[in-house]
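Table S2 (continued). Query chain:
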Amino acid sequence: MKKHCILLLIIIFVSSVYSQKVIHKNSYNISGGLAVSLSEKDHPEFKSNSKSLIFNPAVSFHIMDVLTVGGSVLYDYSEETIENESGSNKSISRIFSFGPKVRYYFHDENYAPFVDFGINYSRVLPSKTEGLSYSLGTGINYFFTKSIALEPTISYTASTYSNPDYNTKTFRVGIGLNYHIND
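Corresponding output:
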């Protein structure tokens, strides 16, 4: 326990030494993270609950000190329990998504809270099911060096799929790393 406390104090000290205005206009941002998702689907013929592991790299450009635009890719591996009139069964699905995103930062030197919004085209593999997802999220960048930030996030995503038609609502909690490329 003492070692963990000492390590935490070192990280806080190092981050305060390197503090500077990292997020600024005309800089780039490369990020990626893992998220855990709990999802509920409401389909006319069944209801389901799923647990997912999500990997989501992204690239963005700061058009203003506090505003970024960019794109993201998402790979979602899900295990789903489906309940219908004849009983329940489990299935595995993989979803590949990509699309634009916008993020607004409320920042100071070491901490940069944010809200973001994204729209993704999604395809369920290997089927022909496809759809659109809209996500709204929040989180904070905690800079522990002058360019690298730890990024815990929380988001809500609503998706509409076709072939077959169904909707999903997803709440995600995740953690990622963010690398800010400064000139």
